[in-house]
């Protein structure tokens, strides 16, 4: 499954018409039906609910292959609390559910009008407020407008000053937001801006059609007033902006509804955004045979640490073991060696020559070579600091070790504003920057990175020729190639916004590479596993107050649950 830009979605819709002969009106009908179905489920309390114990990030409506949830409701992470089950109905039994559809004059409004017709047919009390002149309706929206008009559902709040808009909204069990979709340009203008204000002022539960009105479906920007929804039902493929903040904070749960796009219709390049589905990660986790021994599960090396920061190496090394590596060696400056060794008895710790500041010193690069030669992969950077000798060591390791390298934290500074140097690395490199580190690498600002995270990660992958993991809510993993592939991760929650959680991720990716996974695949899978472990803890305990070290103990169960999901989930979830 892909996340798509508005332009990619339009191209897919066009191809569906031109090549397969399915007209857009048919897609609109399916879209409206999907909205009505989710609306009915939340109104009557039957769901939408997940059918597999797969964590919060991905669940399907029981028995339905075409309606799946790809984003949990914010603040509701985790399979335990979120073992999705029946919810209390929005509309108490004994009377018809009351629904108000606010519609614009584009195709988004058309979807809402189609949904209104279905809900009316199923017995709901439906009112439609059309914001915009009927003459400006798109042809397909007009078909649905006429059908609703015929059923006596539509009111034009602008033409008819008597429409008691706020009263209707206040009485609604559910408001369906069909004002603006992917056709929006810039901040909403009147009368739609006023309609958004009225919907928000009413404070009733909102289901957004395709995207919450007012958000930029590509970049996730929110340039003006926008709807905050409890549910978003998006069509064919989730729009990229639904996973990017600030828009991602307005979507509530995101449900993807199939609307009849044929299986062969895929988003056109130059960049594509596949979803890193948990089941996909689970299906790809290494499975050691019963005859495995530590030598066959990969010997890996973590190079980093400094006197002030010994913990980062310990976390990364332990995470590599928890991810399944057979043997983990840590190479740290001598003054940090005792501290690292005392953190975990399972790590083999080597002290290397140090400088006066407690970081690596002269001779460290030579001393580490024998350890490199006996390792299948390296992580370089956790806690390494910014000393000259440390930077020299990083460059030498990345550019000459001839082993896959996970490059993290201060290690990334060794290539600040010189990302092209990484093109000459003799073996694949996985970079794991957060926005600030990526900004350093690209010679730009963290704000510029955050303003367009997909563009920043694409640029980094293009300039380095390597795999780049841009950490943050919905981590993006750019794996290069043509079209350039940017994986959108679905797992994780704010529990990961804590010191050391990046070190754990580095260790997980290293551990997976150590077991023979392709480094690009290890990056995508490792990010999903890391977030999945955090989701499980957040669900069981809470998302706040979790330490990075808490993730370590969760990894075995998270791995097992993910692997089970990989076996059991339907093929199109992988
Ligand atoms: N294959 C699909 O994905 C399908 C998508 N459907 C739905 O169609 C919309 C996109 O429809 P479109 O007509 O292109 O645009 P909108 O309805 O989003 O907007 C229409 C209208 O709004 C006006 N407008 C633009 N910017 C502003 C603004 N800043 N303020 C006020 N008004 C604005 C402008 O005049 C536009 O014409 C997609 O989201 C889906 O919901 C299909 O129905 C099913 C197939
Ligand atoms: K909308």
Can you walk me through this structure?
It is a single chain. By secondary structure, the chain is α/β, with parallel strands linked by helices. The protein has helices at residues 6-20, 24-44, 107-121, 139-150, 165-171, 192-202, 278-284, 311-322, 334-343, 364-373, 388-400, 435-442, 446-451, 453-464, 501-514, 519-540, 548-568, and strands at 2-3, 59-60, 67-71, 98-103, 125-130, 154-155, 174-178, 206-209, 231-235, 253-257, 271-276, 299-303, 327-333, 348-352, 377-380, 405-407, 429-431, 467-470, 476-478, 484-489. The strands form two sheets. The chain has an eleven-stranded mixed beta sheet, sandwiched between helices. A nine-stranded mixed beta sheet has the order 2-3-10-9-8-7-4-5-6, sandwiched between helices. Helix 3 (107-121) packs parallel to helix 4 (139-150). Residues 48-58 and 75-86 have low confidence and may be disordered. It catalyses: (6R)-NADHX = (6S)-NADHX; (6S)-NADPHX + ADP = AMP + phosphate + NADPH + H(+); (6S)-NADHX + ADP = AMP + phosphate + NADH + H(+); (6R)-NADPHX = (6S)-NADPHX. Residues 85-95 have a biased composition (Pro residues). Residues 277-562 form the YjeF C-terminal domain. This is Bifunctional NAD(P)H-hydrate repair enzyme.
List key phrases describing it.
binds ligand LP7C6HRI, alpha/beta, 17 helices, nine-stranded mixed sheet, binds potassium ion, 574 residues, 20 strands
Summarize the structure.
(6S)-NADPHX binds at residues 107-111, 181-187, 210, 312, 383, 434, 503. Residues 72-96 are annotated as: Disordered. This protein has 574 residues and is α/β, with parallel strands linked by helices.
